[in-house]
């Protein structure tokens, strides 16, 4: 975030709250907007992602009492078309900003005086951005996010699993210990004096802050560049991490593991690891939300006369279900607590679909018995009324 952005952006408008909003109102507005525009809920929507970033940036300022006070004071002095220095003339003010900010000297030997803040503006807003003009150390930098994939068996997805995950990411170069210098003795960048940032003149007399182009924002320059990282201090590093996949994940689900991405720089936090889960199909069981599904064949006598049948469960002992007489094919029965693990530790159910098995080959005795049954049931037409109903009358 640059000084210009801090002054000109209306964070109250971004969150949709009045300027006298309480901390609770600001927090409530942020949570609502963040939930609506979160990238996980708007996959592929670049506009929603940009709104999410703007909302997060606004809350970073307004959600902190100290930064909010500094922001309000800065806006009152410079923002909203208010106090803007110019070259003089009607409606303009022409005076030396060095007097306003205590006679601070301009950075890098540049010109001060009217129309230029010089180095003083960095001291005024240094606390807002954790970077003070041309003095101090370069700010910590957050590590990059990493994308990875893992394939689980059906059982692992239902019950949860810890799997090894090999990842490649940018990390401190081991050869030069992250210094970028072959001998481990880099020098402070003379352009930014070790801050990793430089100031440039902006419109209306503002001094804007950008990453230093000479040291790429590191604040250090290698005297003898490391042959592995070529002076950047960063190299590709491979590592294997044991990742815990929670129970109940679905095929295609994307899991976020905070701080498990690429390491940060200069004490900055690590990035996040995003793992896309793929689940192999099971030859017997299926999945419907928190419930598992299975189709169980039964014989015609079992369906017609009723009885007890044993049904397998995933990773546990079989359960016994009681079939009522006259059970039709396609009926779904429920074995409670034999499904997938939910987030609260409880389990869903096992949904059992009954399929009446029709034998392809019949022995003489079985055929004779069925013929006798057909004669005994003669006059019972299971399709009675079907044709009349098909007419729609």
From TrEMBL:
Zinc fingers (CR-type): give the ranges. 160-238
Which residues are involved in binding Zn(2+) 1? 173, 176, 226, 229
The record's subcellular locations are: Cytoplasm
Asked if the keyword Nuclease belongs to this entry, the reply reads no
Per its Swiss-Prot or TrEMBL entry, what cofactor is needed?
Answer: Zn(2+)
For the CR-type domain, which residue ranges apply?
160-238
List the keywords (alphabetical): Chaperone, Cytoplasm, DNA replication, Metal-binding, Repeat, Stress response, Zinc, Zinc-finger
CXXCXGXG motif repeat residue numbers: 173-180, 189-196, 212-219, 226-233
The J domain, residue ranges: 10-75
The note on the cofactor says: Binds 2 Zn(2+) ions per monomer.
Q: Which InterPro entries match?
A: DnaJ (IPR012724), DnaJ_C (IPR002939), DnaJ_domain (IPR001623), DnaJ_domain_CS (IPR018253), HSP40/DnaJ_pept-bd (IPR008971), HSP_DnaJ_Cys-rich_dom (IPR001305), HSP_DnaJ_Cys-rich_dom_sf (IPR036410), J_dom_sf (IPR036869)
UniProt GO BP: DNA replication; protein refolding; response to heat
Does the keyword section mention Zinc? yes
Main location per the UniProt record: cytoplasm
Binding annotation for Zn(2+) 2: 189, 192, 212, 215
Q: Which one of the record's GO molecular function terms can you name?
A: unfolded protein binding
GO CC term (a single one): cytoplasm
Q: What PROSITE patterns does the record point to? A: DNAJ_1 (PS00636), DNAJ_2 (PS50076), ZF_CR (PS51188)
> What's the domain remark here?
The J domain is necessary and sufficient to stimulate DnaK ATPase activity. Zinc center 1 plays an important role in the autonomous, DnaK-independent chaperone activity of DnaJ. Zinc center 2 is essential for interaction with DnaK and for DnaJ activity.
For this chain, the family text in UniProt reads: Belongs to the DnaJ family.
Function noted in UniProt: Participates actively in the response to hyperosmotic and heat shock by preventing the aggregation of stress-denatured proteins and by disaggregating proteins, also in an autonomous, DnaK-independent fashion. Unfolded proteins bind initially to DnaJ; upon interaction with the DnaJ-bound protein, DnaK hydrolyzes its bound ATP, resulting in the formation of a stable complex. GrpE releases ADP from DnaK; ATP binding to DnaK triggers the release of the substrate protein, thus completing the reaction cycle.
The protein's assembly and partners = Homodimer.
Q: What is this protein called?
A: Chaperone protein DnaJ
Annotated source species: Streptomyces hoynatensis
């Amino acid at each position: 975030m640059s000084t210009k952005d801090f002054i000109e952006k209306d964070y109250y408008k971004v969150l949709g709250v009045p300027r006298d909003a309480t901390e609770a109102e600001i927090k409530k507005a942020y949570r609502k907007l963040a939930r609506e525009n979160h990238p996980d809920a708007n996959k592929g929507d670049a506009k929603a992602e940009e709104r999410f970033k703007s909302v997060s940036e606004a809350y970073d300022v307004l959600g902190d009492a100290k930064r909010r006070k500094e922001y309000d004071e800065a806006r009152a002095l410079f923002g909203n078309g208010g106090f803007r220095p110019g070259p003089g003339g009607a409606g303009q003010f022409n005076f030396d900003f060095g007097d306003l900010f205590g006679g601070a000297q301009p950075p890098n030997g540049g010109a001060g005086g009217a129309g230029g803040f010089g180095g003083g503006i960095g001291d005024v807003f240094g606390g807002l951005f954790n970077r003070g003009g041309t003095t101090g150390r370069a700010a910590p930098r957050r590590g990059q996010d990493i994308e990875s994939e893992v394939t689980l068996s059906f059982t692992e997805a239902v019950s949860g699993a810890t799997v090894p995950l090999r990842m490649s990411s940018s990390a401190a170069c081991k050869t030069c210990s992250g210094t970028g210098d072959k001998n481990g003795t880099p020098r402070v960048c003379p352009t930014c004096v070790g801050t990793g940032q430089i100031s440039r003149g902006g419109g209306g007399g503002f001094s804007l802050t950008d990453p230093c182009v000479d040291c790429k924002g590191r604040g250090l320059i290698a005297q003898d560049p490391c042959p592995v990282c070529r002076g950047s201090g960063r190299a590709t590093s491979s590592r294997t991490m044991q990742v815990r996949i929670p129970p109940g994940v679905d095929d295609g689900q994307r899991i976020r593991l905070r701080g498990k991405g690429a390491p940060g720089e200069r004490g900055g936090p690590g990035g996040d690891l995003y793992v896309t889960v793929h689940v192999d199909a099971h030859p017997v069981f299926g999945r419907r939300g928190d419930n598992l599904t299975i189709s169980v064949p039964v014989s015609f006598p079992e369906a017609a006369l009723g009885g007890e049948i044993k049904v397998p469960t995933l990773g546990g002992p079989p359960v016994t279900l009681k079939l009522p007489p006259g059970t039709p094919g396609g009926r779904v029965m429920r074995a409670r607590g034999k499904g997938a693990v939910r987030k609260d530790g409880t389990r869903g159910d096992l949904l059992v679909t009954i399929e009446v098995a029709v034998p392809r080959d019949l022995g003489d005795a079985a055929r004779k018995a069925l013929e006798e049954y057909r004669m005994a049931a003669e006059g019972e037409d299971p399709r009675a009324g079907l044709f009349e109903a098909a007419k729609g009358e």
